[in-house]
Input
Amino acid sequence: MNTVTSLDAARGMGAQRSAMLTGRTGQLIAGAGTPVVMLHSSLGSKSQWTGLAQRLASRYRVIALDLCGYGSNPLPAADAPFTLDDEVRLVTDRIDALVGTHERVHFVGHSYGGLVALRFAQCRSDRVASLSLYEPLVFRVLDDEDPALADARRLGERVSRFVAAGRRHDAARTFVDFWSGDGSYASLSLPVRAKLARRVDKLPLDFQAASCWPLGPGDLRAIVAPTLLLSGKRSPAVVQRIHALLTRVLLNRRVGSFDCGHMGPVTDAHQVNPWFEAFVDICADREAALSTSRAVVGPASWASAAD
Output
């Protein structure tokens, strides 16, 4: 399977298909069939994936989820420790309730959401049919002395100080401008800035969770699901370094890049979404073929062969 060639051809795919999206607390659902679960970036929500959900809903059951403290979900308790596994538990509970406890799902994840998807894939490899990720924030793949990692740590510390001081707009501005360039926050409309500022209380917990996993390269090498790794050529150095290292550590991966930044799935969805769509299609077709072959060579077939 030449996934890169297939995905390159997918860039020319047509316009988004219309679909009925159903919003519920913490989740956005559309379509029917094989489940595709979408996890958003920090400061985002399930609504980030509306366009991609419309593209996929004619063939899949699309489930876009709010992560802890975002969208319709409350912040984690202030007096309790928070880790990436809290996100994984939330995702697991939602998936189990919506599609059952055994069905395999395809994941699409961006930034922090991509990191959550990777952790889920390590913990529950039996449930993951594929991973389509745009610049997952796997900080711990970097060496402790890496200057790009130092930049990200300084960002986390600065954002956390602003949040603790109640300076929500300063926290949002610092975070957004790091990932999208100086002046990006100021260029947003007042309602959008207000919405982002209301969500910043979760950011220190995102940095905390991202700083504790993976424990080592073995955690990532244990991920066997076919994985698409996408990146932006204008993204900050830290995610470009992470992307380069993940392409070496993840064993079953394909890669692609775009002339855009870290928020490519939002700002340049017309480029990125066709790649997500094509990779899910390829992996779903392969899953279906494997399921058919397993059904043909089942217990009855072996019994007949033994007669």
About this structure: The radius of gyration is 20 Å. Confidence is low (pLDDT under 50) at residues 1-19, 296-307.
